[in-house]
Specification:
Rossmann fold; 9 helices; 20 strands; globular; binds adenosine-5'-triphosphate
Length: 366
């Protein structure tokens, strides 16, 4: 049974003149994003975890001690897979040989707990590229091969350092679904460094917020997104990511019915999806408004019973509210950015039962 503390890191020291003091715990499954502005120390934390940079501290992964006051395992004993911004493939080897590098050119037979060769090829869509040389691959294809090679080294932990930031937007959008599929199919925990909130919203299960060499908060994505004491919820583009399950499809209007905790959303769907498919919904704080009564006639598709969990003033004009979906407010959380005037005119307070009107919610497959 995995627990939140399957990955525990704490590093403290100076990198040149830069003080790093970073401590967090993360579960041994899913994607944990390390998010923060450029130069806040994200890469340095990954390098410390990989054993490539040595600072005082501790690092425990899945019950193994990689570093503590008495231990410092060298990088090759840590079993990490590392994916960098730029894919560094061996130029003289085919895609297939690159993928099989860590198993000395051999496809290992399937075994319990081992990432299978065919599975990786399939998940990353590499079948048709196997005989190619790296110089004949697009940037996105190269990065997919680099991810495959890292996975086939059978890591206990996959470290990804801005794996999409060297790619143009279109290529990034092509790769994201592959990362989402990996995340569904494989049990290897991933620490994913990014300064792109969009990637966090789409991929992360857990979030470690970093600033100036330190960790200001860490925990499940939804909890961090909707913590109004943190900077994320106060940003203009604040949003929550909801994990939803397809319940049905309205053929006539092309609408997907999606279950989240405490509500059912109707969202325009590109295609019919199997009931039970998992999707991620993004709901921006600016797309949610509040009604005390259920509006009798509205063009808004999603008008959802909810309760106000908490509220915080952002500036002289606006407030940010945390809502709990459902009549009892015990479901998933939403953020709503409203004016202070509306708060006063509607006589809102914490605990008030309201209707959340969601003007738009965008979909990403999981
Ligand atoms: N070995 C080192 N010697 C001296 N300074 C270092 C060393 N490693 C990192 N630094 C400094 O530590 C700070 C944090 O760097 P780091 O690359 O970890 O940040 P980051 O959050 O990953 O940034 P980016 O998003 O731009 O990659 C920077 O000021 C960097 O110059």
């Amino acid at each position: 049974m995995s627990s939140r503390a399957d990955i525990e890191v704490a590093f403290k020291g100076q990198l040149g003149g830069f003080p790093l003091d970073a401590r967090f715990a993360a579960p041994g499954h899913g994607i944990t994003a390390l998010f923060g502005p450029s130069g806040c120390g994200k890469t340095s934390v990954l390098r410390c975890i990989a054993g490539l940079q040595r600072l005082n501290g501790t690092c425990r992964v899945g019950g193994e001690i990689w570093q503590d006051e008495n231990t410092f395992l060298p990088p090759h004993k840590r079993r990490v897979g590392y994916v960098f911004q730029e894919a560094s493939l061996f130029p003289h080897m085919s895609v297939r040989s690159n993928l099989l590098y860590s198993s000395h050119g051999k496809v290992l037979p399937p075994a319990e707990g081992r990432v299978g060769f065919d599975e990786v090829i399939d998940l990353l869509g590499l079948e048709h590229l196997m005989a190619r040389a790296p110089q004949h691959l697009s940037g996105g294809e190269r990065q997919r091969v680099a991810i495959g090679r890292a996975l086939l080294s059978q890591p206990r932990l996959l470290l990804m350092d801005e794996p999409l930031s060297a790619l143009d937007r279109q290529t990034r959008d092509e790769i994201l679904p592959f990362l989402e599929r990996l995340h569904e199919a494989l049990a290897i925990p991933v620490l994913y460094v990014t300064h792109d909130l969009f990637e966090v919203e789409r991929l992360a299960d857990e979030l470690v917020l970093m600033r100036a060499g330190g960790v200001i908060a860490s925990g499940p994505l939804g909890a961090i997104q909707s913590d109004t004491s943190l900077p994320l919820a106060l940003q203009r583009e604040a949003a929550v990511s909801l994990d939803a399950v397809v319940k049905g499809f309205d053929e006539q209007y092309g609408l997907l019915k999606l279950d989240v905790l405490g509500a059912v959303f109707l969202v325009p769907g590109r295609q019919r999806l199997e009931a039970g498919t998992r999707l991620r919904l993004r709901v921006g704080a600016g797309d949610v408004s509040i009604a005390l009564e259920k509006p009798a006639a509205t063009s808004i598709l999603n008008v959802l019973p909810a309760r106000i969990r908490s509220a915080r003033t952002v500036d002289e004009r606006e407030m940010i509210l945390v809502l709990g979906l459902g009549e009892d407010g015990a479901g998933d959380g939403l953020l709503a950015r409203i004016t202070r005037r509306s708060w006063d005119v509607l006589g809102l307070s914490e605990g008030t039962a309201i209707h959340a009107q969601v003007k738009s919610a965008s979909l990403a497959s999981r």
